Automatic annotation (TrEMBL), chain A:
Gene3D superfamilies: 3.10.20.30, Nucleotide-binding domain of ferredoxin-NADP reductase (FNR) module, Translation factors. It comes from the Bacteria. This is Flavodoxin reductases (Ferredoxin-NADPH reductases) family 1. Residues 235-320 form the 2Fe-2S ferredoxin-type domain. Residues 4-109 form the FAD-binding FR-type domain. InterPro entries: 2Fe-2S_ferredoxin-like_sf, 2Fe-2S_ferredoxin-type, 2Fe2S_fd_BS, Benzoxazolinone_Detox_Enz, Beta-grasp_dom_sf, FAD-bd_FR_type, FNR_nucleotide-bd, OxRdtase_FAD/NAD-bd. Pfam families: Fer2, NAD_binding_1.
Automatic annotation (TrEMBL), chain B:
Residues 118-159 form the Dimethylamine monooxygenase subunit DmmA-like C-terminal domain. This is Dimethylamine monooxygenase subunit DmmA-like C-terminal domain-containing protein. Pfam families: DmmA-like_C.
Length: 320, 165
């Protein structure tokens, strides 16, 4: 049996799914069975670059009950900060990769009577395993999936064949362009849960729309690719129980500054969506850039998500 | 379902009087004759244009098939208000959660006494109890402290047996 921690893996196979999406098959070096996972789970991957470690999180796309290997699908982002470009351009079959145990911050609502998925681009990845799980349980779901073209739509043929009548595709640059809109949430039956995965703007738009249609917050689930951007002001952060004052410069997040200073701050998605990096704020105004907290929570609680939010003014005092 | 919400005397859905949730787009009001006066009064304060509502009156006994047809035809954005005696409310609540309503989408106003149940940890029997912190099991006569935990699975407060002085 495995003890929780990291798993040494090697790349067993690489498939080109679309022009910009590759699927990487990761096998355990010790050939022992891998931990099973649930729909929507992801892993953190660590690639040794020599002078530093490339740490990235990717949704699992292999079958949740297949414990012989994991698979991840990566879109080569033209604005890559190094992660997707490195995986696409340098990772080859046989390379060693370290993987975390599977984690899941994007789980299926188990009370739901019907599940409605909205994916933009590579945001399809967590839904592949969620749909596998629901199909196995005989539960109802539907997928709305937007991509630029059919050719750029990862797993289009697979989804079309495997889930007939359950998938609606929207191609913005086809001969007859179609736009995916939140309107399809309006007439869902009672007991429906909605799930969004895509860029921050898309997730924010759909979350706001769902709330405006009267969905309770607990019936809305989402996962983000990256944190919202904004002007990055420098500020100081005092961590009272570590007796440290740390400078956060415009090029780094508060989380990065804390980790660089040797403080074991918690984190996971690094996109302001999972809430794992929540820290108590003792003093100072927070510029909230996440979409995890509701407006009410922001007013009632004093806390910050260190992966994306910053200080409104010169200084924050934290306790962690 | 195994862990479906259950209506009990401390349910977060229970309110003193009907108050419409302005986050929802439609308001489905299921009421019995005891609540009819209050419901009609609450509705007269709003026109159908400003408040999208659908009233449904329970006459004498609940017709389950009609109730299910009504509940299963609802869309997301609907808030359910149950205004009735305990037995009618418990039936509507159970059917509503089965149809997909969550506790966040239900408001309950009880007319008359609420019922309480206890799950005996000695004989594993659930029975109705009166008010009070200490009761006797209806089946095995064990003395029990009531709760504080309520089991959705057993549909009653956990009863902790003790030996009386």
């Amino acid at each position: 049996m495995r003890v929780i921690g990291n798993i040494e893996m090697y790349v067993g196979k690489i498939e080109q799914i679309t022009e910009s999406v590759k699927r990487f098959y990761l096998y355990p070096s010790d050939q022992k069975l891998l931990p099973a996972f649930t729909g929507g789970a992801h892993i953190t991957t660590y690639v040794d670059l020599g002078d530093n470690i490339l740490e990235r999180e990717y949704s699992l796309v292999s079958h949740p009950t297949d414990r012989t290997h994991y698979a991840i699908s990566i879109n080569r982002d033209p604005h890559s900060r190094g992660g997707s470009a490195y995986w696409h351009d340098h990772i080859k079959v046989g390379d060693k990769v370290i993987s975390s145990f599977p984690k899941n911050h994007f789980t299926l609502g188990f009370h739901a009577k019907h599940h409605v998925f909205y994916a933009a681009g590579i945001g399809i990845t967590p839904f592949l395993t969620m749909m596998e799980e629901l199909e196995a349980q005989g539960k109802t779901f539907e997928l709305h999936y937007a991509a630029r073209t059919k050719e750029a739509c990862a797993y289009h043929d697979y989804l079309h064949e495997k889930y007939p009548g359950k998938c609606t595709f929207y191609f913005s640059r086809s001969d007859e362009p179609q736009r995916m809109t939140p309107e399809t949430m309006k007439n869902q039956r009672i007991g429906s849960h909605v799930y969004f995965c895509g860029p921050v703007a898309m997730v924010s738009e759909y979350k706001e729309a769902a709330l405006s249609y009267g969905y309770p917050e607990k019936s809305i689930h989402f996962e983000l690719f990256a944190a919202a951007s904004g002007e990055n002001n420098p500020f100081l952060v005092e961590v009272i129980n570590h007796n440290k004052v740390i400078e956060v410069n415009p090029e780094q997040t508060l989380l990065e500054a804390l980790l660089d200073a040797g403080i074991e701050a918690p984190y996971s998605c690094k996109a302001g969506g999972c809430g794992q990096c929540e820290v108590d704020v003792v003093e100072g105004e927070v510029d909230h850039r996440d979409i995890f907290f509701s407006d009410e929570e922001r007013e009632q609680k004093k806390m910050i998500l260190t992966c994306c939010s910053r200080a409104k003014e010169e200084k924050l005092v934290l306790k962690l | 379902m195994y862990n479906s919400p259950v209506l009990y005397d401390q349910s977060e859905t229970i309110k003193e009087k009907l108050s419409f949730n302005d986050k929802r787009k439609k308001h489905l009001i299921i009421y019995d004759q005891k609540a009819a006066g209050d419901v009609k009064q609450a509705l007269t304060a709003h026109s159908q244009e400003e408040l999208n509502y659908e009233p449904f009156e329970i006459e004498d006994a609940i017709k389950l098939q009609d109730l299910r047809t009504l509940l299963y035809s609802q869309k997301m954005g609907t808030h359910l208000y149950i205004a009735s005696n305990w037995d009618h409310a418990a039936t509507v609540f159970a059917e509503a959660t089965e149809a997909g309503f969550t506790e966040d989408e239900i408001q309950t106003v009880i007319y008359g006494p609420k019922r309480r149940y206890i799950y005996c940890m000695k004989c594993y029997h659930t029975s109705e109890i009166s008010d009070g912190d200490e009761v006797q099991c209806a089946r095995c006569d064990a003395y029990m402290e009531v709760g504080p935990f309520f089991s959705k699975v057993r549909k009653g407060y956990i009863g902790y047996p003790f030996i009386p002085n």
